[in-house]
Specification:
By secondary structure, this protein is α/β, with parallel strands linked by helices. It is built from 28 helices and 18 strands. The chain has an eight-stranded mixed β-sheet with strand order 13-12-11-14-15-16-17-18, with helices on both faces. Strands 1-2-3-5-7-10 form a six-stranded mixed β-sheet, sandwiched between helices. Strands 4-6-8-9 form a four-stranded mixed β-sheet. The structure holds nicotinamide-adenine-dinucleotide. Nicotinamide-adenine-dinucleotide binds at residues 298-304, 321-323, 327, 378-381, 385, 389, 406-408, 429-430, 432.
């Protein structure tokens, strides 16, 4: 038939098999193969019914997203669905594993669906900023209750086979061999009247107007400014109020608008960016990996506890070490209270919590790490403490164990030099809270073995993180860029903005939180320590001293009840504080700056373009492998809005020439070389190119 579809007839039933690994993506070849197979089954008088089947793991993962950026090739999925609709013989989808997006739409255009018990069905298009564009929004609410259909489509949530059966989405859940069981089912429906979902009425009782007004209000609240969920609601309403073909037209038009819109482009960029991060040019995919079956974490503080949880969460036993019994007990009880909070919210079962806690062993003897395959150090951020720890680790860790450091600022090579096995040392920079945040910055030392790097990247994925690798620079990718962002945020205060204006402008842009809320949360004393170091190391780096003035008043942020804002006891909500205004006024007088009105647009540009400019330098220096890795770092570790695709992608969509021109304007008015345009930005802007070409 074709390389990706196979056709056979068994006992008068056509078996159309899809074989397009790894996920049975509905590529052009697969769609053409399906069309041909359907035509053959329709034309053969000896064929009384047909079955479409995929692999055990994937009925079909849906459309090939790469094709969204190209003109549609024929036949497209709606053409295949039309051929299914025209079929005069029972057509049965045999669903093993996942039926997602276009894959589920293919199944919905069959007369019947039979599923293996472990199958998962869903329309996750919303996660890429689009909607099911091949009849999904019209067929799903005609086969399952409207409220459930809207929920599935606006959240992208999957349903398992049993739930699908309960909802009416599948006709039968079968045990044993899926094809054999489906053939039996197909035989049983030969001769019965054909049931097309498109001929059903939408499953909605009561007045559609009232129902959709309520749904719209709720979805608007949850969709945080993303357009796709509300467009899906509009399509669902069309399913309830219009004939099928008119509803399909609505769906097509809305899909076309979304797929070319900025939100979907950004989300698709992020989707691919995430899959790129583990590709390292000089580390072949078949690099032999080391086994990681057990772990140890040194330091049971804020980070060590979260890192230990990350291992336990995926079933890897872990030994948590600290220097005193008290410290290790404190660490364990924090872990337990974190898990208990998740249990009380209903997001974790008690027995699962118990299982995870039982995987975490505590100890104050370093010798207890001797069997661990990986040891992650999370002790105090001081080179002497780190080197001492690594020296001891070297003495007790088993040969071949990976020795990882969670340092945020220190030189991994210097830490590695304390051991006899620098090839086994690597940086694994988790983000706080380590059990929640997805970003894992992996720092490759000069001597890090390729197998250690490849194993750490794989482990990052096992831990359900997004591992991003790079060579070393002070402050790493994320924090290196953040320093420039921070520098601008303080200058904005000097010049006349208030913390609340800056934070509001950034929140409106879509950042999870503005810089001053973030500083107050992290603790202003931490930044103060770094700046004090910087004043010595980089006297050329111009800083506003306004944050120092805030710290000098003991305003360290949430933990002291006041920082750039004030806080009521037990409440993390930032409240504007007149005292801060007084400190600002005094500082402006001290540096003889007359405050001016600053627009939100300028605030956003100065902060975001500071990230972009430094990102370009980092890329140019080869510290980041690709622009999309920088985007991933900001999307998963720094609260950058996914619908803007990351700072580098955002700059690409604004246009690099325009970004450069704004930077040139800033350069004229400001001190030092803080706005020196990155050479790579200048070059790409001149050539009319993008960071993410
Ligand atoms: P923390 O002060 O909360 O915890 C450090 C723990 O290490 C303490 O419990 C301490 O008793 C223990 N410790 C110190 N010396 C030890 C030794 N020789 N052997 C065993 N245990 C020892 O610190 P933290 O915030 O968890 O930071 C730990 C590391 O993670 C630092 O390198 C830090 O830079 C890095 N980091 C922190 C964050 C963050 O947001 N806190 C984020 C990323 C990375």
């Amino acid at each position: 038939m074709s390389d990706v579809t196979h056709y056979a007839v068994r006992d008068g039933i056509a078996v159309i098999s899809m074989s397009n690994p790894p996920v049975n993506g509905l590529s052009n070849a697969l769609r053409a193969g399906l069309m041909a197979a359907l035509a053959k089954a329709a034309a053969d008088a000896a064929v009384k019914a047909a079955v479409i089947i995929g692999s055990d793991k994937f009925f079909s993962g849906g459309a090939d997203i790469r094709e969204f950026n190209k003109p549609r090739e024929k036949p497209d999925l709606p053409d295949v669905n039309d051929a299914q609709d025209a079929m005069q013989k029972p057509l049965v989808a045999a669903i093993g594993g996942f039926a997602l997006g276009g894959g589920l739409e293919l199944a919905l255009a069959c007369h019947y669906r039979v599923a293996a018990p472990k199958s998962q069905l869903g329309l996750p298009e919303v996660k890429l900023g689009i909607l099911p564009g091949s009849g999904g929004t019209q067929r799903l609410p005609r086969v399952i209750p409207m409220a459930e259909a809207v929920r599935m489509m606006t959240t992208g949530a999957f349903v398992g086979a049993e739930k699908a059966k309960e909802l009416g989405l599948v006709d039968e859940v079968v045990q044993g061999n899926l094809l054999e069981a489906t053939l039996v089912f197909a035989k049983s429906v030969i001769g019965k009247p054909l049931k097309r979902i498109r001929d059903n009425k939408a499953k909605l009782d009561g007045d559609p107007k009232a129902f959709f007004a309520k749904v719209r209000e709720q979805v608007a609240k949850e969709s945080k400014g993303y357009p796709a969920p509300l467009e899906i609601v509009a399509c669902a309403e069309a399913a309830a109020t219009l004939p099928f073909d008119e509803g399909r037209k609505e769906e097509r038009d809305r899909f076309a608008r979304l797929v070319t819109g900025p939100e979907s482009k950004s989300l698709r960029h992020a989707f691919f960016a995430e899959r790129q991060t583990s590709k390292i040019p000089d580390v072949p995919e078949d690099t032999p990996l080391r086994a990681v079956k057990s772990a140890a974490v040194i330091g049971a503080g804020t980070m060590g506890g979260g890192i230990a949880m990350s291992f336990a969460n995926v079933g890897i036993p872990v030994t948590l070490i600290d220097v005193t019994q008290d410290a290790v007990e404190r660490g364990i009880s924090k872990i337990k209270s974190n898990y208990a909070a998740t249990v009380s919210k209903g997001r974790l079962k008690q027995d699962e919590m118990d299982r995870r806690v039982s995987l975490i062993k505590k100890s104050i003897q370093l010798i207890d790490i001797k069997d661990a395959d990986i040891i992650v150090e999370a002790v105090f951020e001081r080179m002497d403490v780190k080197q001492e720890t690594f020296k001891k680790l070297d003495a007790v860790a088993k040969p071949g164990a990976i020795l990882a450091t969670n340092t945020s600022t220190l030189d991994v090579d210097q830490i590695a030099a304390a051991t006899q096995r620098p090839q086994d040392v690597i940086g694994t920079h988790f983000f706080s809270p380590a059990n929640v945040m997805r970003l894992l910055e992996v720092v490759r030392g000069k001597h890090t073995d390729k197998g250690v790097l490849a194993t750490t990247m794989k482990l990052g994925k096992t831990l359900k993180k997004v591992p991003v690798v790079y060579g070393e620079c002070d402050g790493f990718i994320g924090n290196g860029m953040l320093e420039k962002y921070g520098q601008q945020s303080l200058f904005l205060l000097d010049e006349g903005a208030s913390p609340q204006q800056v934070d509001a402008a950034l929140a409106k842009f879509g950042m999870a939180m503005g810089p001053f809320t973030m500083y107050d949360m992290a603790g202003n004393d931490i930044g103060w320590e770094i700046r004090k170091r910087r004043y010595q190391e980089r006297p050329d780096f111009v800083y506003s001293k306004i944050a120092d003035r805030i710290c000098e008043q003991g305003r360290f942020g949430q933990k002291t009840g006041k920082g750039f804002y004030k806080y009521e006891a037990g409440n993390r909500k930032p409240i504007a504080d007149d005292e801060v205004q007084k400190i600002l006024d005094a500082y402006r007088s001290e540096i003889k700056v007359k405050p001016r009105q600053i627009s939100d647009e300028e605030i956003v540009q100065r902060l975001i373009y500071a990230l972009v400019n430094e990102g370009a330098n980092i890329l140019d220096e080869g510290i980041a492998l690709r622009a999309s890795d920088i985007d991933m770092v900001y999307l998963t570790g720094y609260g950058f809005p996914p619908y803007r695709g990351g700072p580098m992608f955002y700059a690409d969509s604004v246009g690099l020439a325009q970004v450069l021109s704004a930077i040139n304007t800033f350069q004229k008015g400001y001190k030092g070389d803080q706005w020196k345009p990155a050479p790579l930005l200048v070059k790409l802007a001149k050539e009319g190119r993008k960071f993410n070409d």
